[in-house]
Amino acid sequence: MLMNKAMGKKGLMLFTALMAVVLVVSGCGGSGEKSGSKKENWVSIEDRYTPDANTPAWQLDKKEETTDLTWYVNADWWNTDFGKDVVTKKIKEDLNINIKFITGDDTKLNTFFAGGNMPDLITTFDSNSPVVQKAATWALPLNDLAEKYDPYFNEVAAQDTINWFQLKDGKTYGYPNYSNTQEDYDSGNIPAKTAFVIRKDVYEALGKPAMGTPEEFRAALADIKKQFPSLIPLGFNSIGEGTGSLGDVLQDFIGVPLEDENGGFYNRNLDEDYLTWVKAFNTVYRDGLISDDSFADDGTAFEEKVKAGKYATIMLDGTPQQGGNLQSFYSNNKGKEYIAIDGPQSTVGHAPTLNQSGITGWMISFITKDNADPAKSIQLFTYLLSEEGQMLMNYGIEGETYQVNADGTVEFLPEVKDLQMNNPDTFKKDYRMGEFMFFGHDRHKALSGDAFPDAIKQMQEWGKGKLTPHFILENINPDQGTPEARSLTAINTKWNTTLISMIRSKDDATYDSLLNEYKKFLDDNNWDKIVEVRNEKMKANKEKLGLK
């Protein structure tokens, strides 16, 4: 989820890598090819155990030797340690496995398909990629794995999620983490991850100013610059291939509609309400209230400034991901901690439609056809999806790291809580609760106030009632390798540079020229055909979800 700094160059590199994946994966066979086109390593469990629909297979398996698995995660930032912290040490012991994690980017992912030397497990992040769409050519179907080796998998996997990831052959090959259904949203157990935050000492010194209108927003930031000259008045997530928290995050914040009046695709980038706020950001930039560094800072630089409290206000996406940095500042600067306030609001009366993880989830994990022990691997999936695995990943081991109270709530033991509060880096290294997140789910975090650091709880409280599922907009981009997909790549790159340039415009004429140039770019790059594809996919999503 971290973004790259060099937009144009990186965009081209990513496009090139993805095209290579299209060619390589396509080489495995067309969409009509049977899932058995590549040799499948189905192992015998005759001497190990007899599958039981009522018992997790990992509890039945009598295999004595340790199973070694390689697990590729398509993210350079993933922590590759295994067996050193409380969470992964317990997984290692319970399942008698050892995992060697490999990390990389799309280019490295492509080399596995080009070279034929596949890892046992693969986790990727783009459900619309050709790698995922062609999973039948290189992965084992979870339906068959469950039937043959571990029918208890069907007890812990969400059927709505299984159906959502079903391919044309009627089988499901990948399973995600943080896949939230409508039922999950309705439960109220999913916390918001977006907030407009301000340092508490700044907020109170300014008399708790309203910042809901562009005029109020500009005035408050100007007062911050006068009274707190050492602070950066306004910050936002790092800008990379995307638009940080100034794009769809801001759109959700002010409630830009998800679809047009006919239920079709709506270009939210050109919504008048949103553009009013983009112009407001341009105005405060011209006032010297946004640092030029904010457009160049990478994720690390942004995080360091959050940790040090350098920003007076932040349009923030991913409060859990920034939880450690926010907690560090919170613990060391009582009374100055960041708090959520209403911040920018719709100029036309729309309520916020904050997004959270949808039914597609985030990290999608697969068991490859080259897997050394698919029986043990589906046991691992079942284990992590089960109540036992979910509690381990979120809270550790009962009696060692947490206790269950009489009312059913969960809390960390005092020494563990103290470490989480005052030394989050050591907490992450030694315990890894909340960080080893394959198949993780928000509903288990609702069991305890300790699931998230104290620094973001007020932000999550502020977000209650403001979440809206974006299911209809999931996976609606044109299929990669199509002319429409190539056009959309160019359009997205154009929008990223246009939005940043609009915010940094020196005058109204430049701002207007950039916006008009972007609109013309849409007309010149198959926008109408892209909208047609998106309309078709939105319609299919609604049918899949049972929506009219």
UniProtKB/TrEMBL annotation:
Organism: Paenibacillus solani
Taxonomic lineage of the native organism: Bacteria, Bacillati, Bacillota, Bacilli, Bacillales
Name of protein: Sugar ABC transporter substrate-binding protein
Stored InterPro entries: Bact_solute-bd_prot1 (IPR050490)
